[in-house]
Amino acid sequence: MVNSPTLRRRRLSRRMRELREASGLTAKQVAADAKRRSGKPRGWSDSKVIRLEKGEWKRLRTDDVHILLDIYGVTDTAEREACAALALESNQQGWWASFDDVLGSGQFVGLEAEALRIRTYESAAIPGLLQTEDYARAMIRSGGLVEDDTLQRRVEVRMLRQQILTRRDAPTYWAIIDEAALRRVTAELADQLEHLLDVGSRANVGIQVLPFSCGPHTAMTGQFVIMDFPPPDPPAVYLEAMTEELYLEKPPQIQRYQHIYDYVQAMALSVDESRDYIRHLITSHT
User: Boundaries of each DUF5753 domain copy (predicted)?
Assistant: First the structure.
């Protein structure tokens, strides 16, 4: 399995937050103590501690990690070594780092790379991991004015992401696609429908169609992705708006989206019925 620096960063940040909260210290108190211990008054601030706990840092020195562990009273050698190792692994770069010009932080791709299971609901578009190159190009171009080189870079990285579905240790991937997204596939892009049948035949991939006949439902307002990771990392929910990304990690939030997904999945056509429906759409185009 790919070791994702993004997941390591998330794990270390979560552990640092847990240790501080267990110690009863505020971020300001931690920063003041870190200044004293490090001998670098300008090297620490409460905002630095908060950024570290949110995973909003670029590189983290193992010396800084050890200072925090000293403040939190962590003496267990194994835990100290594990946290230091996480810091080193978090500073590495995944393949997606070379596409930071079109991906930004690449956080979603980094999490996706090490997920054990990915469940997605899409209300208006074919999920990125299931898109053909032509469909991806049409989707990206439709978002507005895009230079040719930027367009090609975005298409390229989207195709590279799809390699996780064919790895030896590929995650289980389950997609529920609203009928509206399929109806928007034009005759010129009909290969996209054929591709859904092809990729949906893989043992680790499931595709279900949510038909209009289901009527109003709880997920109508937008798409979301639920990612499950190897222990000890908890699941995460990814939400995408027009210009921003949101990650939900609190247990009540995760549970709510898991319930929504289960509800929508129960309403959707079965896998076999969905394949028949897609074949029907292909026939209508020809």
Answer: 107-280
Interatomic CA distance for residues 163 and 159, integer angstroms: 7
For the record, the structure tokens of 251 come out as 């247990």
Helices of type H across the chain: 5-23, 27-38, 46-54, 62-71, 77-90, 100-103, 107-112, 133-142, 148-161, 179-183, 191-199, 251-267, 271-285
Q: Give strand pairing partners of 237.
A: 226, 248
Q: Residue 47 contacts by C-beta under 8 Å, 6 or more apart in sequence?
A: 27
Six token digits for residue 283: 């026939």
User: Cα separation of 255 and 77, whole Å?
Assistant: 35
Residues 128-180: tens digit of each pLDDT: 999 999 999 999 888 676 788 889 999 999 999 999 999 999 999 999 999 99
Q: Helix 5-23 crosses helix 77-90 at what angle (to 10 degrees)?
A: 140
Q: Which residues pair with 208 in a beta bridge?
A: 176
Distance from C-alpha of 110 to C-alpha of 87, rounded to nearest angstrom? 16
Signed CA dihedral, 164, 267, 239, 143: sign only: positive
Token duo for residue 148: 């040719």
pLDDT in tens, 17-68: 999 999 999 999 999 999 999 888 788 999 999 999 998 887 889 999 999 9
Q: Which domains does the chain have, with CATH numbers?
A: 5-92 (1.10.260), 96-285 (3.30.870)
